[in-house]
Amino acid sequence: MTIQADATPREATTTRGGTRTGTRPVSGPAGHTARPVPPDVLDELRAVDDAGRPAVPLTDEEGGAPLRCCLRRSEAGESIALVSYAPLRRWAAAAGVDPGAYDEQGPVFIHARACGGPAGGGLPFTGARRTLRRYSAAGRILGGRLVEDPDGFDAAFAEAFADPEVALVHVRAVEYGCFLYEVRRG
Question: Could you tell me the pTM of the whole model?
């Protein structure tokens, strides 16, 4: 099976003896932290995704799928799953707010089985154009920004969080609109 991922070139990965290292979120140079899908949520998605469908593992024959569990590209031969995920819905439920019409779900790639999470080393998936979508503490969209330059992420996050109303930012692929990761204030 061929997996069509977004058009970003493959990101470098950090491994030790073939095993993923680290379980922490990934921070960029200016301290903005990319948050992967949390492990407890991944466990739920591997059973039944946010659209109510069971996850179906598949072997990634070519590699390159953007994995939201460890914030790196898949490698050829890895067992992954494409699941439906509602990041704002889950954040809003934990925050005790209702995202209203801004609640949405979409496809994300994850490892079919638990992995070690991100290994660190800078913001992931910055090699292509991205949309940074800003949300308030009430779960409402406050705006967004297209980032076309891989060196433009720090400035885009600084601009977003300069607005005291912004609680979190979703980084999304431009080509497909898919959620890649979240960055929260602080």
Answer: 0.84
